[in-house]
Amino acid sequence: MISGKVTRLLLAAATFCAAAGASTVFNFDSDGLGTSTNFTDMVNGLSATFSSPADPGGFVVYASMFDTLTGNVLGDPGPAGADNLDLSIAFSENLGALSLDFATADFGTPSPLTITAYENSTLVGSSSATGSFPSGFSFPEGQVSLSGKTFNQLVVSSTAPDFAIDNIAVTAAPEPAAIALFGLGLLALALPRRAVKSKRAATAE
Question: What is the secondary structure of 114-176 as a DSSP string?
Fold first, then answer.
């Protein structure tokens, strides 16, 4: 029988884990057309600051001309007129997973797009993907994702001269307190079972 205290522990742990697993999406639809880097968006209390080496105006928000990227997107070249740029994204909290939709400026063979993650200035991982041409559209599109790391900064790059991104879905990294609480809940569940097992073994002797 699980005590009320253990039940409360497990409920609290589940709440923490559910909050950590909830996804927040940055899609640029609330940004005015022509908004260019450097700028910051905030969704569900999480902020993301977008910047590039060519700022002011390296990347710009514009209406999508793509299939899987809808509404507004963020791409280059912006008002600065520069190509072959990296896009940096700094988040206000630690993240544990991220995915985004992208399109690259290729008319022939699609170029890979790479996301490189950092915890402050420490490299923690990277992931690459290559898009494909949707029927009836001019540019290759795809999705790239990264998980299993804790990071708060991201650099997006491609060998294509230009690229656009949209629908950046991020998941907060679980807090150490939530992990510890969940562990306590599991331990509290295991102890009564172990006690019952020991009691049965003693009775059987």
Answer: EEEEEETTEEEEEEEEE-B--TT-SS-EEEEEEEEEEEEEEEEEESSS-EEEEEEEEEEPPPH
